[in-house]
Write a structure and sequence with these properties.
Largest sheet of chain B: 9 strands, mixed
Helix content of chain B: 25-40%
CATH architecture of chain B: 3-Layer(aba) Sandwich
Helix content of chain A: 25-40%
Distance between the termini of chain B: 19 Å
Structural class of chain B: alpha/beta
CATH architecture of one domain in chain A: Alpha-Beta Complex
Distance between the termini of chain A: 55 Å
EC number (chain A): 6.3.5.3
CATH superfamily of one domain in chain A: PurM-like C-terminal domain
Subunit structure (chain A): Monomer. Part of the FGAM synthase complex composed of 1 PurL, 1 PurQ and 2 PurS subunits.
Oligomer: heterodimer
CATH class of one domain in chain A: Alpha Beta
Number of helices of chain A: 28
Strand content of chain A: 15-25%
Order of helices and strands of chain B: HEHEEHEHEEEEHEEEH
Largest sheet of chain A: 7 strands, mixed
Strand content of chain B: 15-25%
Shape of chain A: globular
Structural class of chain A: alpha+beta
Largest interface: A-B, 32 and 31 residues
Catalytic activity (chain A): N(2)-formyl-N(1)-(5-phospho-beta-D-ribosyl)glycinamide + L-glutamine + ATP + H2O = 2-formamido-N(1)-(5-O-phospho-beta-D-ribosyl)acetamidine + L-glutamate + ADP + phosphate + H(+)
CATH topology of one domain in chain A: Phosphoribosyl-aminoimidazole Synthetase, Chain A, domain 2
Pfam families (chain A): AIRS, AIRS_C, FGAR-AT_linker
Number of strands of chain A: 28
Protein name (chain A): Phosphoribosylformylglycinamidine synthase subunit PurL
Radius of gyration of chain A: 26 Å
Shape of chain B: globular
């Protein structure tokens, strides 16, 4: 029996399974107060998903506000937080939109589809801004490399990203891969997408204009990801067949590719008033959000939704997370042109309703009204929690456990080789060679470069006229954030910012994916609050606004949370992409220069992790003014063509940076260390540093530039030869470095 | 009509026009079409978009079937594309001598359409592979390789999950004896193909298919290191200028 509004009014005391849907009793009472009656089961479906942590940010909202209140002034910001993705002005009439989002839990349950649909979802967010998606990246975290479950999860995740992204025709230009026992049972799969559009073509998720048509287009709706709805269905209908539905959505990248091309033609033809992708909470989310941001009302006939499984119930249609679907608002005059473009791309499209000025979202099912709500109450007025938080009990002891007590090595040669072969520093080629980095022909730099760089020219008609390019990097260090979430978040931003700057790009804007344990644990909540505060403060100092992002809570097994892991993505612009700087020793005979000062900083370092399995003390000092100066110097040097190569110094310190630079082009180098302690010089992880190579004849001009930016600058030696030589300390042939670097991942995953 | 006369009539038609016109086909799910068109333009040719659903080759001088996942690679790579309306025009024209190049998914489509012998199966290690690959040009007499020297070594990217070329023993022998193995992998076979085969041609040499991507090796700034892919495009364009 359909639970209509009429029936709900007649049966006010019928018990409803709100708790099984994850709703607290006070939240349920609020729904009853809003409606002045009990909700129908369809309405309960809508409120329960829209007010979930995932959709409503109810635990994080009070903290995330700082990204707005502390935001630096930015001329570049065109669309800020709150839309599907932020948009920034990149010059010459062009704009870039980018966002990173988590798909952690689905990727643990079903690695391939979980990761694949993570890519699909973020790509649709970018499309819904009116942009052509042009590249993806992914930031991944797994348990220890040798843990059995890592062998189950990692290959599936990589295959999911590979099969979906490659089939979609989006180059994968970078990302991260980190192993740490804390992620066992809670892998992190954070997918980033970037898109390009003309500045005047931005689309928003809004449904204005009474009489305009509401079109659902793309894949048909099936029983994907509606675990929650099955509770409703079985509770209300006692129908066993609906109780066992797949919890993870299944993706079809071919349909998504057609959707991309179809949407771009729709935008080009200017037949779209508003658009929204269907992600989490599917039709519930798209209808409530579009209506809430538009004229305020919408009428939808749920019976018109094209189904893959005709037995689906209205509650299930509302909650289904079937992939590759979009919703558009179209004027009656344009509807024929809209449908013709969909037909050309073989994309099914159906008018399921229209915009009204009633202020109500009304849905019918076989002529009965099953939903009648003010849409804003579901979309915007969800609960907001001020969750309690306090510093974790062991935090002071953890910080007091300074790595200075650890035995330091005397054989630095084998220390370097051990680190280079360790899971987090070893070559990620086993993974990245499964991603297409060339498709669309605009990839200028991709992994293992510090940042992915794309040419803008020739992306779309008219784009040939710009020489500009964009650079993107993501970074995050859970160990640093565990030791100090405030500094850890700042260091994540600083590293991504630096990685963009070393390519010669001017950092412009930030996206973030905040991966944490349960917000109901006050110690986790403290980590979250500190990380957000640190990131917001750092964005202000560096002058880069947060444009959007995502929070992923409940990454924990039992009562053990993951390390707090804020992953930060930074987008930058190159005015002339031809001036991009590569990360290696590109030729012999170049001066090797270290920028930035090195202190004795080993808290949370790769060395402490690899050599001693130690995590304690404090992370490196986050000196944001120094980061800002360093980036300024790097960008100006690139613009003036003063540097040949440039590489960020971070995990594993100078030793790893030098080894990676030598491996990039197979050119060695000879250096003399600037300090008195070779171990500290080589392996400390002090921030705000980079290694650059300069032609000898330009060194004076470069040194002068560094002095102007007050960036410390140390000539270390020269590139050349077939080995990396640190005078008086070590010499390792590049081939030996390569063997150490290359074999770790294949040894595990090809065996 | 013999192959030669078909080619001649096309060339005669072409002489009154400007740059050679190379058709670039887009199926649903084609991915490298923009890149192929760009490579044609960079070489001085005119790239003519061809749509899978049109029975119209628009009088082009040559056709490029680019890479991608046409029709989602459902059933088998290239198996559905083979039946596209455009292919009804392309198949007889190719048999009559129209120069056709298929890269990656384009190669798979040419094999499914029986314009080239053999088939492309899942990579030996079951993983998609994207890497810069050294290639040996063994036959520099085809329509698409005239600008290379026989035995020349070039660097092109490969990026595919189903690139393992296979054929029965008799076919392989015939291809080897007839000089129809146009390209071979050097320095490690990325997919386990028979005899390290990277690309083959038909007997007449007007139809060439290969897994590597010449269109991603034509500019210094982007794609694979170097510009070794340019030879494909200069070969086909010169053919029409010189004939």
């Amino acid at each position: 029996m359909t639970d209509s509004v009429k029936r709900a009014s007649e049966t006010p005391d019928e018990p409803q399974p709100y708790a099984e849907l994850g709703m607290k009793s006070d939240e349920y009472d609020r729904v009853r107060a809003i409606l002045g009656r009990r909700p129908t089961s369809s309405e309960l479906a809508i409120y329960s998903v829209m007010w979930s942590e995932h959709c409503s940010y109810k635990s994080s909202k009070v903290h995330l506000r700082q990204f707005g209140t502390k935001a630096p002034h930015s001329e570049a910001l065109l669309v800020g937080m709150g839309e599907n993705a932020g948009v920034v002005d990149i010059g010459d009439g062009w704009a870039a939109t980018f966002k990173i989002e988590s798909h952690n839990h689905p990727s643990y349950v079903e690695p391939h589809q979980g990761a694949a649909t993570g890519v699909g979802g973020i790509v649709r967010d970018i499309m819904s801004m009116g942009a052509r998606p042009v590249a993806v990246m992914d930031a991944l975290r797994f348990g220890a490399l040798d843990a059995p479950d890592t062998r189950r999860v990692l290959p599936g995740v990589v295959e999911g990203i590979s099969s979906y992204g490659n089939c979609l025709g989006l180059p994968n230009i970078g990302g991260e891969l980190v192993f740490d026992p804390c992620y066992i049972g809670n892998p992190l799969v954070n997918a980033l997408c970037v898109g390009l559009l003309r500045k005047d073509q931005i689309k928003l998720a809004t449904a204005p204009g009474p009489g305009n048509k509401v079109v659902l287009f793309g894949a048909r709706t099936g029983p994907d990801g509606i675990g929650g709805a099955s509770v409703l269905a079985s509770a209300t209908f006692e129908d066993e067949s609906h109780a066992k539905r797949p919890a993870v959505q299944v993706g079809d990248p071919f349909m998504e590719k057609l959707l991309i091309e179809c949407c771009l033609e729709l935008f080009e033809a200017d037949v779209v008033v508003g658009i929204q992708d269907l992600g989490a909470a599917g039709v519930s989310c798209a209808t409530t959000e579009l209506a809430a941001k538009g004229t305020g009302g919408m009428r939808v006939d749920l019976g018109l939704v094209p189904l893959r499984d005709p037995s689906l119930l209205p509650e299930e249609i509302l909650m289904s997370e079937s992939q590759e679907r979009m919703m558009a608002v179209v004027t009656p005059e344009d509807i024929d042109a809209f449908m013709a473009i969909c037909t050309r791309w073989d994309v099914p499209a159906t008018v399921i309703g229209e915009v009204t000025d009633t202020g109500r979202l009304v849905m019918t099912w076989h002529d009965e009204i099953i939903v009648d709500i003010p849409p804003g109450t579901a979309a915007d007025d969800g609960p907001v929690y001020e969750r309690p938080f306090h510093e974790p009990a062991g935090q002071a002891a953890l910080n007091a456990d300074d790595p200075v007590r650890l035995t330091r090595p005397t054989d630095l040669r084998s220390t370097l080789l051990d680190l280079l072969a360790s899971p987090n520093l070893a070559s990620k080629e086993w993974v990245t060679s499964q991603y297409d980095r060339y498709v669309r022909g605009n990839t200028v730099l991709a992994m293992p470069a510090d940042a992915g760089v794309l040419r803008i020219g020739e992306v779309m008609p008219g784009a040939e006229e710009t020489d500009r390019g964009i650079a993107l990097a993501t970074d995050g260090n859970g160990r640093y954030a565990r030791l100090d979430p405030y500094a850890g978040a700042q260091l994540a931003l600083a590293e991504a910012y630096r990685n963009v700057a070393v390519t010669g790009a001017r950092p412009l804007a930030v996206t973030n994916c905040l991966n944490f344990g349960s917000p109901e644990d006050p110690e986790v909540m403290w980590q979250f609050a500190e990380a957000v505060r640190g990131l917001a403060d750092a964005c202000r100092v560096l002058g880069v606004p947060v444009t959007g992002g995502n929070v992923s809570f409940y990454n924990q097994t039992g009562s053990t949370p993951i390390h707090p892991t804020p992953v930060v993505g930074v987008l930058g612009v190159l005015d002339d992409v031809g001036r991009r700087v590569r990360h290696g020793f590109t030729a012999p005979g170049l001066k090797i220069v270290l920028l930035g000062d090195t202190g004795d900083e080993f808290g949370g370092s790769e060395w402490a992790h690899v050599a001693h399995g130690h995590l304690g003390g404090l992370p490196p000092h986050a000196d944001l003014e120094a980061e800002r100066s360093l980036a300024g110097a790097l960008v100006e040097a690139a613009e003036r063509g003063l540097i040949e190569g440039s590489h960020d110094v971070s995990d594993g310190g100078l030793a790893i940076a030098l080894a990676e630079a030598a491996l990039a082009c197979g050119v060695g180098g000879e250096v003399q260390l600037p300090g008195t302690d070779a171990f500290v010089d080589l392996f400390s992880e002090s921030a705000a540093r980079a290694v650059v190579t300069v032609r000898p004849e330009w060194f004076d001009a470069f040194a002068e530039l560094c002095a102007r930016y007050e960036v410390p600058c140390y000539g270390l030696g020269m590139t050349g030869g077939a080995s990396l030589r640190v005078e008086g300390v070590l010499e390792i042939p590049v081939d030996e470095l390569r063997a150490a670097h290359r074999t770790t991942l294949p040894a595990v995953f090809d065996s | 009509m013999s192959e030669t006369s078909a080619r001649r009539s096309r060339v005669e038609g072409y002489e009154s026009m400007g740059a050679a016109r190379v058709g670039v086909v887009t199926f649903p799910g084609t991915l490298d079409d923009q890149d192929a068109a760009r490579a044609v333009r960079h070489a001085g040719g005119e790239a003519v978009p061809l749509w899978h659903a049109d029975r119209d080759l628009k009088g082009v001088d040559a056709v490029f079937l680019p890479g991608g996942f046409s029709y989602g690679d459902y059933l088998r790579c290239g198996a559905i594309s083979r039946f596209a309306p455009l292919m009804e025009e392309l198949i007889p024209s190719a048999r009559a001598g129209l120069p056709v190049l298929g890269t990656c998914n384009g190669f798979q489509i040419l094999c499914e359409a029986h314009l080239l012998p053999g088939a492309l199966t899942r990579n030996e290690n079951l993983h998609y592979v994207c890497r810069d690959q050294r290639i040996l040009v063994e036959n520099a007499t085809t329509a698409w390789t005239g600008d290379y020297a026989p035995g020349q070594e070039i660097l092109l990217p490969v990026k595919h999950g189903e690139g393992r070329y296979v054929a029965d023993a008799a076919t392989i022998t015939a291809l080897e004896d007839g000089g129809q193995i146009v390209f071979r992998y050097l320095g490690g076979n990325p997919n386990g193909s028979v005899n390290d085969i990277a690309g083959v041609s038909n007997e007449a040499g007007n139809i060439v298919g290969l897994m590597p991507h010449p269109e991603h090796a034509v500019e210094d700034l982007t794609g694979a290191p170097g510009v070794d892919g340019r030879g494909f495009f200069s070969s086909i364009l010169k053919r029409f200028v010189n004939l």
